Amino acid sequence: MSDGRSRPGESGSAPDPVLLVAHGSRDPRAAEATRALAAAVAAARPGTSVLASWLDHTQPDPAQALRDLAASGHARAVLVPLLLTAAYHRRVDIPAAVAAANGSGPPIRVRVTDVLGPVGDEVDQVLLDGLRRRLAEAEPGRFDALVLSAAGTRDPAARASVGRVARALGATLGTPTRVSYASAAPPSVDTAVARLRAAGARRVAVAAYFLAPGLFHDAVTTAAHTAGAVAVAGPLTDAPELVELVLRRVDD
User: Which residues contact 171 (CB under 8 A, 6 or more apart)?
Assistant: First the structure.
């Protein structure tokens, strides 16, 4: 919905604050990555307040962050879900947090953006560019097959969106690409790597469809190398392409 927000230089009013909402993890590296992304987004958009929040394990949660913004005099905010699929957390947890914020304390009008993953059938080229950046940084050399490893979800529509990313990434690289999941759905990354090798691929690389480091990415890295992968990319964290993608969601 339109809320009359402004960007720096477009009017005399200050831009609406941006609240990033991450999944959350017991691993402190995940929160550090989210804070780094918030700092990078703020640096790319001077004059805009960019805050981080988490659905679990780390404070503040989004409801409290929105209450704090309302209490400090903000009538509006833009909430960006740091999620790569539009599954349960986007459909249920984030709307519940917005409702909870407005259920206690001053009201605040919140525009919730799309997730960072595909919207409909379209895969953002900038997302693919970020995945390619991290893969190149892993220095796989020449590879003849690729696995896109994601966290995992039981939501069929969300899994379908991961598949779209894998197909688009494979088309961009000209490489056969398969999907794997760290949890909730098969195949696991070691199974995906082994299948590609059994089909004749000699050098299989793994692209990480993760926003932050943590136990899942660690497990994927270990399993992929054990299965014979030549390299495993790091998570997107605060890659310039991810910063651009966040700002695109803010501006949509």
Answer: none
Strand partners, 112: 79
Looking at residue 177, its amino acid is T
Total residue length of the chain = 252
DSSP state of 17: P
| Structure token digits, residue 133 | 């950046």
pLDDT in the model for residue 104: 83
Nearest by Cα to 250 from 83, 63, 18, 91: 18
Q: Count Cα neighbours of 199 within 13 Å in the Cβ-side half-sphere.
A: 13
Query: How far apart are the C-alpha atoms of 45 and 58, rounded to whole Å?
Result: 25
Nearest Cα to Cα of residue 99 among 114, 74, 79: 79
22: Cβ contacts below 8 Å, ≥ 6 apart: 30, 31, 34, 52, 53, 54, 55, 58, 82, 211, 212
Q: Which residues, 6 or more positions from 206, have their beta carbon under 8 angstroms from its beta carbon?
A: 146, 147, 148, 149, 180, 189, 193, 220, 221, 224, 229, 231, 232, 233
Per-residue pLDDT at 13: 75
Is it the case that residue 89 has pLDDT exceeding 80?
A: no
Tell me how far the alpha carbon of residue 126 is from its chain's centroid.
12
Please state, rounded to an integer, the average pLDDT across all residues of the chain: 92
Sheet holding 109-112, edge to edge: 50-54, 18-22, 76-81, 109-112
- β-bridge partners, 180: 149
Per DSSP, the residues of 88-125 read HIIIIIHHHHHHHHHHSSS--EEEE---SS-BTTB--H
Eight-class DSSP state of 43? H
Report the distance separating Cα 171 and Cα 161, nearest Å.
15
